[in-house]
Amino acid sequence: MIQKFKQKSFFVSTGGILLLLIFQFFNFSISYAANIDVASKYAWGENIGWINFQNVQVDNLALTGWAWAENAGWISLSCENTNTCATGNYGVSNDGNGNLSGYAWNENLGWISFNCANTNTCATGNFKTTIDAQGNFQGWAWAENAGWISLSCENTNTCTPALFGVKTTWRPGGGGDTTAPVANAGPDITVTDIDNSGAENVTLNQGMNGDKEGFYLQREQSQQQR
To answer: Which of 71, 110, 140, 213 has the fewest CB atoms within 10 Å, i.e. is most exposed?
Structure first.
C-alpha cells in the first residue's frame, strides 16, 4: 500500500493541483458548480480543522469539485478537476444509493479515503461515508497524513454545542436536485497596463476569500492593452 501511495503522489503532484492562469488582460468572473447546502457545508478533522465542502458537486456516480481545509488548502475530489485522470486516476465514487468510496487528494494531507473497503482494512478499522435520505453526509473519512475526518457532529454526539455537518440537495436513488447552481464569487477584475510597454503576461494563483470562489472561468471580454 505504501508503494501505491508513492506512485499516486507522483502522478497527482506533477498533474498540478495548483491552478495557474496566464493570460493577457482578460476581464473575467469566477463561478462554481456545486449542490452543497450553504448552511451545512463543514466537516471537521482533529488535526486539520474545518473543511468547507461548498464547491463540491454530488451526482449519482461521483463527487467532483474541491473542498477547502483551513489548515491544509485545497482538497480535490476527482482527477477530472485537473485533467490528470490519464496519469493518476482517482476520485470519490457514489453507488447511487449514497454509499461513497474511493479517494480525494491534498498535497499536505495525502490520500483521503472515504471507505475502508478501499484498502481492505475494514476488519481493523471499519469506516465509511454515506449520504442519507435527507442528503446529510454521515460517517468518517481517513487522511493518511492527518487521521480522522468527521462528516457530521452526530458521529460523536457533539451537535450541542458544536453543530456541523455536510448536506447536499442530491438524494439517494435519484431523488433531489442535482442541478449545479452558478454563483458569482465577486466583481470582475480589470487589469490595466500602466506603462504602455506592450503586451505583458499576468499570473494569478488560485486563492480563497470569504466567498469560497470556485474554478470555472467565464471569459466575458478580452482587450489587449496598448
So the answer is: 71
